[in-house]
Amino acid sequence: MLTLTDAGLRVEVLDPGAAAELPLQGLRFCRGGYVWQVHDERLGPLLSGPEYPAPAPVPFNGQGLPESFRHRTRDGRPLTWRGNEGLAPGIGRLGLDARGEPTLVTPCAWTITALPGQLVFQTRDAGAGLAYELARQLELRDRTLFSRTQLTNTGAGPLVLQWFAHPFWPLRDGEARVRLPAGTRLAENPGFAVDADGTLAFRRPFRTADDQQFTLLELPPARPLTLTLDHPQLPRVEFGASFAPDECPVWANARTLSVEPYLTLDLAPGETRHWELRHAFPAA
């Protein structure tokens, strides 16, 4: 794996060109800049996953701090597809197998540049009548990991898709507490509750990896997302996005919790969009 180190932290990043790491990568998460784990030199690993601590989870489930460009919506509607040909930004060109399920035809090729405190991943690809250039930059500074993305539509028509972050944070004694922006609400559900100050907590414990809850947060409009959450080893973890999410699910099972900011992207030919995430791990 590729690594970044700073201030007692070591960040492990999957190498999209390493054959030994391909079994950890699938068709859901962007392969360039996929943060697999963050280690504290005294406390050990700080992130989780739906199957954690399994060393080789199902690629769809993943681990750590993955990010994704959706080539289909959550309900299966095609986005970056033309007939049986698809394009998954950050993954490669897709086709359909005998069961009609997406399969990787040709992975995109990445250029990786290591700079002081940074890793930069760059790729370009075309298929299904679409084309793009993508750059992913990870920077570790003062126990804060910055994840920056730049996407350019290099095709002749619009590029319409969704992007989301899926950070997997560990639970503390089987529970979670997340301080979201005041005014955050969510629909009635059996798994989560949000109080008047915007603090999210579990309504019940989740017993197994298959025992889970998904629902959509109603965040205050037009405000970039920031939150803090309890952590079993650190005083807290802080998470922030440079944008106001178009929607924001929250999901948990017995191993992990995730708040997932989404962007809906509709890029005209030649248009570029860029955004940033911030993950802070204050020292104990």
Structure explained in plain terms:
This protein is mainly beta and 284 residues long. It has strands at residues 2-6, 9-13, 35-40, 44-45, 67-70, 81-82, 85-88, 92-96, 102-107, 111-115, 118-127, 130-141, 144-153, 159-165, 169-170, 177-179, 185-186, 192-194, 199-202, 213-218, 226-229, 237-241, 248-252, 256-259, 262-267, 272-280. It has a ten-stranded antiparallel beta sheet with strand order 10-11-12-13-26-22-21-16-19-18, with no helix packed on it. A five-stranded antiparallel beta sheet has the order 15-24-23-20-17, with no helix packed on it. A hairpin with a 3-residue loop joins strand 3 (35-40) and strand 4 (44-45). It has a single domain, classed as Distorted Sandwich (Beta-galactosidase, Chain A, domain 5), CATH 2.70.98. It is built from no helices and 26 strands. The two termini are 26 Å apart.
Defining key terms:
mainly beta, ten-stranded antiparallel sheet, globular, Beta-galactosidase, Chain A, domain 5, five-stranded antiparallel sheet, single chain, 284 residues
List the helices and strands and how they pair.
Elements: E1 2-6, E2 9-13, E3 35-40, E4 44-45, E5 67-70, E6 81-82, E7 85-88, E8 92-96, E9 102-107, E10 111-115, E11 118-127, E12 130-141, E13 144-153, E14 159-165, E15 169-170, E16 177-179, E17 185-186, E18 192-194, E19 199-202, E20 213-218, E21 226-229, E22 237-241, E23 248-252, E24 256-259, E25 262-267, E26 272-280
Antiparallel strand pairs: 1-2, 2-3, 3-4, 5-14, 6-7, 7-8, 8-9, 10-11, 11-12, 12-13, 13-26, 14-25, 15-24, 16-19, 16-21, 17-20, 18-19, 20-23, 21-22, 22-26, 23-24
